[in-house]
């Protein structure tokens, strides 16, 4: 039998080196691509995380803006006594002993302490019964001359813990306006608890029928807060929420050193101090633009004729000889003429990226196309604290429906 011997030849050293070089080159390209994918994924993930936080946080802000003025009294024979915020600078926006303004704003604050208010940001104060987080504050009802309030939801407020106010609503033919008058026993006694049929206990602990309307009329009831049965310790016949940006110890370390946290601060009725609720992290600026109706007949027009900054010192449009600052200081003019509220927020998008350098040295925190460049703020994103971060501009636009 004839056998065939096969010749088996291996790789030469040169061939092995060439193969290893090609393999190393392919591996290097793959690793580089993988690193790029990881970097992009990290950026996208951070961006989407910011988007989700923004949607949830800004919905709270939008809700409160729409509720501005809800349950506020707009007329009084003599002003009731109330106190609002206890400490500066927030007490600067009180309307103590007067008809309250539904919206109060201030422009580009610089208090020398970013833990109080982040420098160059605006402050937004909203007043209304529903801007508190208390369960009772989210409800309203009415009462007729029977002395029995209409139930709100499954609640009939017979536990005596909910603190309520009553409003008498009427139409003034001469002024062609609808007013809400606060029902009270005396200037210091404007709230009550309801226990049972026609059983009302006022702020002084006395049974009273003052909150029951005359025959054929009705009073509107608004919840202020809940609590323990018995004593009243109310600061005001309404609730209040202040939106501010602060840089505190609780601001995440991933935020730019130039950014803080947007907080909703709800006024505690017990002592006039605030409870801080974080709304949105890594906010570098908040700017407020207000739209006003300066026509001669604002009660029958929804027109926005003037846009102003947060303190009324700058405006764009036809003021019709009016001082915007004067409008802002008057509760009646705010109620009659404020038509539009825009809130702009400059927010960090994702995390710090040393491979990214921002080149925008004049970011407008507003809408230049609407003439808002001079009404808001311009931020230099090329500074050391901001240049390695991506930024996005959120804005909330509301036409308040509860002012008039």
What report would you give on this structure?
This protein has 404 residues and is α+β, with helices and mostly antiparallel strands. It folds into two domains: 47-74 and 92-127 and 253-398, no CATH class; 135-225, no CATH class. The chain has three helices and 18 strands. It has helices at 13-66, 324-329, 331-337, and strands spanning 103-109, 121-128, 140-144, 163-172, 177-182, 192-196, 199-202, 207-208, 218-225, 239-246, 260-267, 274-292, 306-308, 315-317, 338-349, 363-364, 378-379, 390-398. Strands 1, 2, 10, 11, 12, 13, 14, 15 and 18 form a nine-stranded antiparallel β-sheet that branches. Strand 13 (306-308) and strand 14 form a beta hairpin. The protein is elongated and about 110 Å long.
Features:
404 residues; alpha+beta; 2 domains; four-stranded antiparallel β-sheet
Average pLDDT rating = 86
Q: Helices and strands: which structural class?
A: alpha+beta
Biggest sheet record = 9 strands, antiparallel
Counting H and I runs of at least 4 residues, what is the number of helices? 3
Number of β-strand runs = 18
Which series of helices and strands comes N to C?
HEEEEEEEEEEEEEEHHEEEE
Low-pLDDT stretches: 40-52
What distance lies between the first and last C-alpha atoms, to the nearest angstrom? 114 Å
